[in-house]
Automatic annotation (TrEMBL):
<dbReference type="InterPro" id="IPR008279">
    <property type="entry name" value="PEP-util_enz_mobile_dom"/>
</dbReference>
<dbReference type="InterPro" id="IPR051549">
    <property type="entry name" value="PEP_Utilizing_Enz"/>
</dbReference>
<protein>
    <submittedName>
        <fullName>PEP-utilizing protein mobile subunit</fullName>
    </submittedName>
</protein>
<dbReference type="GO" id="GO:0016772">
    <property type="term" value="F:transferase activity, transferring phosphorus-containing groups"/>
</dbReference>
<dbReference type="InterPro" id="IPR036637">
    <property type="entry name" value="Phosphohistidine_dom_sf"/>
</dbReference>
<dbReference type="Pfam" id="PF00391">
    <property type="entry name" value="PEP-utilizers"/>
</dbReference>
<feature type="domain" description="PEP-utilising enzyme mobile">
    <location>
        <begin position="529"/>
        <end position="600"/>
    </location>
</feature>
Amino acid sequence: MTDAAKGFPLPSSIKVVPGTEAAQAAYPYYTQFVPEDDGKFWFYNSMHFPEPMHHFDMITAEAAYVAMGAMNTRMHVLPTAKGVDHRIINGRVYIGGVVVTDPDEIAERVAEFTSRANFYYENWEQLYEQWKDKMRALIAEAQALPSPTLPAYEPEATFREGNAVAASHDLLKIYQQQVEGYHRMWHHHFEFLLLGYGAYMTFFGFCKQAFPEISDQAISRMVAGMEAEIFRPDEEVKRLARRAVELGVDHHFTDNVDIDAVLADLDKVAAGKDWLNELEVSRNPWFNVSSGDGFYHYHRSWQDDLSMPFAALPGYIAKVKAGENIERPTEQLIAEREALVADYRELLDTEEDKATYDQLITLAHRVFPYVEGHKFYCEHWYTNLFFNKIREFGRLLLAHGFFGPDGVEEDVFHLAQYELESAIVDLMLSWGVGAPPRGPAYWPPIVAQRKAAIEEWGKHPTPPALGNVPDAIDDPAINMLWGITRENLDSWLDDGSGNPNELKGFAACSGVVEGIARVVKSVAEISRIQQGDILVCQVTNPTWSPLFQKISAAVSDIGGSMSHMAIVAREYGLPAVVGTGVATQRIKDGQRIRVDGGKGTVSILEDA
């Protein structure tokens, strides 16, 4: 394929899967591709949205991109990058960056950014502690929202106390407060995030200029060995494994155990009761993490579904009883990073360069834990709470017949956020007027149609990118977080003239491993992972950490050197290659493959 012919499909060439047109049209108009979008480059954000999106779940994309755009463009005023546009087709979310290219505008934005960023960097620890207080207050505010209910008659106390506002009004108030709080959470999420990346990127750029031969992985290892809240849930599972052994109740924990039966058995004996008390200590708040990355309602939290921690306990218990170390290799990572930092410092020629180097790496170490730590409060704890609050509306609508006789409360997530508000108003009208609501006749066929569309979309692959490949991709966040570089895009476009059994990506964590590929395309499939497998997925996240004891290496479609998967792999010392683009399509489940996490290559050795 010549360079001129290289390119991904244009957005206009991607057709809606037949039979799902109505479900596609139900997404907001501003998320639909239009002809003008053919002139822009887009990539499939499988890092955050690896599965087709339910209509309500699109709020997780919308609220995030609204807040990210405002922070980048108007609040922190990043010099060369504003926000990202997003579109959805066949349930798949594509994004495209909005870049600043005018030199005068860049210069204006640099002046604004410098002042604003310096304020944060100079007061980082104090501001971060204030941020945690804001997040805890926001979580408490959401928890305090009452469950939506409608009495048969308004209690007399309502008007006797001078209120005289009917209960139906509270439905709208509660829902709007939930949505407002969710949007506010995303503003908190992005308050520090890009600044955290920015500090690392500045250090990264300095190293690339000062040490032309240095690898991305060597630079990333200089900030390894972090402590962040997102790792705490896994630490709690390890603690529970140790306590099970100490209390002599470890025999209760086996693979594929009946969790309810185990909890009931433990409650019958004193040692078991002690362990259950330990479980409660861990659950609040540390099990408020979802099995996914916090963008899908059905990725339930460990708090709601104990399957993930209970799947990890047998492995950890076996290692504890065998005297093996189950801790993250944090001390080793810190020793390696300090040696690397010192070795490269010695290569600098001037005291001025050494002073700059010292300043940049010190700042990176100060701010980088936030890049992972914030996820616990935002994508997990708050988002899980938010989805559970929406379930309460699903329960209310179900009770009033909105989803038909065979419906379930989860059907509420097939309504877009604006449609859910209209259904709530329909119920308010019905209750107040005393006439039947329209929803029970209107929603069941639409919900059925959208259920079918989600299932059908999941059967169809989607291109990793759309539009013509740009000459250069200079947005460092897109490079390092998503792994979108010109070189990687060229490898994704390989027409087969190269080695069909080799994939290239980012070298996330060094080590060479051969093993059986376990291709996992959704959270629901992680139970298929066997001891020693090589995980092949679109993306993983820190809450899969308890399963890292089982796998020998990891490969992903999406992600750069600073993606969450790359960071977690380094923190656990797990060989990994990220950003291959097409691993889940090219590698077949059960094939034997070789992962070289130092070179960033994956080789297919033999068929299943």
